[in-house]
Amino acid sequence: MSGWLSALTTALDPLCGPVGIFSLFGQNSLVACGDAGWGDEIAFGVKVTITLALATLPVGLLLGFLIALAAQSQDKLLRTAVGIYTTIFRGLPELLTLFIVYYGAQLGIQSILSTVGYDGGIEINAFLAGLVALAVVFSSYASEVLLSAFRAIPRGQYEAGDALGLSRTRTMTLIILPQLVRIALPGLTNLWLILLKDTSYVSVIGLADIVRQTGVAARVTKEAFFFYGIACLLYLVLAMISSFGLGFVERWAKRSETVR
Prior knowledge:
10 helices
């Protein structure tokens, strides 16, 4: 099964697949696929960037949703806690947050293990560290977008669910969430594009994303302008594809609105 999946992924690779851009137009150049150029390495970096962004999105959205719910809680201590959380991670630079997660987690785990007599080295997976760091930053911003969307929904919507005999969970699922998605979608769209760009920070901890791969190619070949130009184009293409796809989702979410 994995062999078929790998073959399908290779065949559909838009850069180094049989009909990929680098395969068709980059032959005998620095971006040729295979041993002749850096096309394979850059294509792998694109896959890592997309995978990291897509893996971070649901985690960040779930955290942001829970934080938005907590911010509306009657418990003052809980509201204070989430307020501190969002203030910290919206205030810290993303790169510093990444360093804290990557290096801080290693030191913390090593300190805990040293108490039980283990003195070996600990290394955190760079992909996981990047996912956690980007997710907490994304969630701190997403929570504010979702909180504003919650406040835009009239209280009468909740009362309507109670009048129909729905539980709070079903009211949230059937009545509130569809409206929440429609209201919050423009703000979340912007956050997705920011997340896509912020994945470039993981290159500093050794993860082979677009920036890392093109940076290595630039240093080896001394063609910095060429390879960083390719990195710019790749991010722009990903942003345009995202904008097109999210525009379709936004139109779908608003399909039930009354035409005025």
